[in-house]
Specification:
mainly beta; Immunoglobulin-like; 24-stranded antiparallel barrel; 54% strand
Length: 670
């Protein structure tokens, strides 16, 4: 075998060995129930869960365990009439199951997996894959174009929220009813014409009681507060006479009518796929070679867009694959604009080109190309040779002809990145090395300021990143992510900020014969030119996450722990726990301690409970109650789960330091 064939064989083995795939199996129990088994291959993951409508999207989902084949596996029980919407979940990231029986728009520019139990069982029976006697079990493939009917989904909740001022005691300050109901319809309206509709039925916060000085949603201050009797009278009449309007008071405190916020419609053919949308729906996001060039969850369609993309018959030609799209839109402050891309791949090699523009005009379509205030030229390439991969990306930003930005030097308007990555066949170790540069004016048109900084790095900087992991025995894997950023292209004048995150992942599930994992990290930084009065070296933060499953069968199923340390002017230690009991019951406990010169309340605490009601006919709502005191790590959108970044509350150290709250509510998510 010559060298070329040997390398080709090695590449195939690598791709097969590192593939990530999933399957869904359904078995009819014959008593109106079915068993749905999810499997997912991800050898590098130290933990994996399934999260979705069946657990009201409560993070971190229902943990999976490795089976005898080394695959992540979980079996849940469902009803014959159920519709399961789900994703995989690992370390704070949601993962779409590309092998799901069907998919459903997640409202954030991506998709959830969708299992319509009755349809899947019918598909299995029609395909002859099931056994007789109501015990069919089969792998269900994703069948393009198989989904026809419109499907209804919603995220809705009603919550009572009472707040207390803890700055000088424990004084009640206000009580509100908060409510939101988003209705979603998705499916083929006729033939292969998919549509997505999102209607805000109500979304508001209405005061029921308030102390003196209560501020209403429209900014009005009530010097004498709001009497409880008046608030309850308004509450009762609102629910009886006009519940949707009363629950949906807008920012001016007025009754808000239900509104169609998001709309998408299109058609699929063999040669072209078309989609259009407007309002708060997102532009179709795009991941290029190394960068997210169109933010999938930030760029609202506003006045609308059209997307023309190659159909399935044109995306494959022998060993070559292609993808191309043209997306004219009015999404950038109502200006006319567009982005277009073309991508070609052959085996392990890929070439990508994207062009973006924004016109000067908002009103005259015949003058779109007369003056272009912004243009992006983006090129990317990627290639693999066995275990080694090399990727590169380049951006040139162009501005209004003759303007001050366009007169800047070429290097100020460009950005570039290069990445080399490696993973050995035996998964003993992996690593990456990357370099990046961003000029003072380089920016992606379809990213906002924060998005540009996250993708390209800060303006006028050089960056170097490296990292990887190595297996340490059977149970541990050491990890390191590090980077150095030069704040000026002058090597002798700018500050070099060095950041490092060493970590350790521990998985003793096989030894313990149950899911048992832990992961810890520390963030360290060093500045060559620290600010006046600041130390060059800084211990920024640290965290630990631990998970245990299958603890007491039929009683205590899972325990998750998160510890976080934020080390700044105010030091913040938090410890949060979530206990998953049988019958859909979850308990949450937590505490925090602040220390520093400006601290008002050093101690915080919380307790919460959620119950996934076993009522499939009512789409299994979740009822919950929470008490928080001087800290509030709950997710304002997901409601019943913690909102954590690196095991610390995303809201930060100072959030809710002088406030307590008691909340109780009910939420549907399907």
């Amino acid at each position: 075998m010559n060298l070329k064939k040997l390398l080709a064989a090695a590449a195939v083995l690598f791709l097969l060995g590192s593939a990530v795939f999933a399957d869904v199996r359904i078995k009819d129990s014959g008593d109106g129930k079915v068993a749905i088994t999810f499997t997912h291959k991800d050898d590098a993951a130290s933990e994996m869960a399934v999260i979705g409508s069946f657990n009201s999207w409560v993070e971190p989902g229902v943990p999976m365990a490795r089976n005898a084949d080394g695959l992540w596996e979980l079996t849940i029980e469902a009803g014959l009439e159920d519709e399961i919407v789900y994703k995989f979940f690992s370390k704070g990231s949601y993962i779409f199951d590309f092998k799901a029986p069907d998919k459903k728009d997640d409202g954030f520019g991506g998709n959830n997996g969708l299992i319509i139990v009755a349809e899947v069982l019918a598909m299995q029976a029609a395909g002859g894959t099931g056994a007789s006697g109501g015990s069919s079990s089969a792998v269900v493939p994703l069948l393009p174009g198989a989904r026809k009917k419109l499907s209804f989904g919603t995220f809705a909740f009603v919550e009572s929220d009472t707040r207390f001022d803890t700055s000088g005691g424990f004084d009640p300050s206000k009580s509100t009813v908060d409510a939101k109901s988003i209705w979603k319809l998705e499916g083929d309206v006729v033939g292969k014409m998919p549509a997505f509709f999102e209607i805000t039925f109500f979304d508001g916060s209405t005061p029921v009681w308030g102390a003196d000085g209560l501020v209403l949603p429209d900014g009005t201050v009530l010097p004498d507060g709001l009497a409880l009797g008046d608030g309850l009278e308004d509450l009762a009449s609102g629910f009886v006479f006009n519940p949707a309007f009363w629950l949906g008071k807008d920012a001016d405190g007025k009754d808000a009518r239900p509104a169609l916020d998001k709309f998408r419609f299109g058609f699929d053919t063999k040669y072209v796929t078309y989609e259009t949308g407007y309002g708060e729906t997102w532009l179709p996001g795009r991941e290029s070679t190394l960068w997210e060039t169109v933010a999938a969850e930030k760029t609202a369609a506003d006045l609308g867009y059209s997307s023309f993309r190659l159909g399935s018959a044109l995306r494959e030609l022998g060993d070559f694959s292609f993808d191309a799209a043209l997306v004219p839109n009015r999404s950038l402050d109502d200006f006319y604009g567009l982005y277009a891309y073309a991508q070609a791949a052959y085996g392990d090699y890929e070439l990508d080109f994207q062009y973006d523009l924004r016109s000067l005009t908002k009103t005259d379509p015949l003058r779109i190309f007369e003056v272009l205030t912004r243009q992006d030229f983006i090129v990317g390439a990627r290639g693999y040779l066995g275990m080694l991969g090399l990727s590169g990306q380049f951006l040139l930003s162009r501005f209004t002809p003759g303007g001050s930005a366009e007169k800047l030097p070429f290097t100020d308007k460009m950005a570039a990145a290069l990445k080399l990555d490696y993973e050995d066949f035996f998964e003993m170790w992996d690593g990456y090395l990357g370099a990046s540069y961003r000029g003072s004016a380089a920016q992606l048109l379809y990213q906002d300021g924060d998005g540009n900084d996250a993708v390209l790095g800060a303006e006028e900087t050089l960056g170097l990143d490296l990292g990887g992991s190595i297996r340490l025995g059977h149970w541990m894997r050491g990890k390191l992510d590090a980077g150095a950023t030069l704040s000026s292209v002058d090597l002798f004048a700018g500050n070099i900020a060095v950041e490092a995150r060493p970590g350790l992942a521990i998985d003793v599930s096989l030894l313990a014969k149950r899911p048992l994992t832990a992961e810890l990290y520390a963030d360290l930084s060093y500045d060559t030119l620290p600010a006046s009065g600041e130390a060059a070296f800084d211990f920024v933060q640290a965290g630990l996450a631990a998970h245990a499953g299958d603890l007491v069968p039929g009683l205590l199923e899972t325990v998750d722990l998160w510890y976080g340390l934020s080390n700044g002017a105010t030091m913040w230690n938090t410890l949060l726990a979530e206990l998953g009991f049988a019958k859909g019951l979850t308990a949450q406990l937590g505490g925090g301690f602040r220390s520093g010169d400006a601290v008002t309340n050093p101690v915080g605490a919380l307790a919460g409970v959620t119950w996934l009601v076993p009522a499939p006919a009512a789409k299994s709502p979740t009822v919950y109650a929470q008490f928080v005191w001087n800290m509030d790590p709950y997710d304002a959108d997901a409601l019943t789960g913690f909102d954590l970044t690196d095991n610390l509350p995303t809201s930060g150290v100072a959030a809710s330091e002088s406030e307590a709250a008691f909340r109780a509510g009910i939420v549907w998510s399907f």
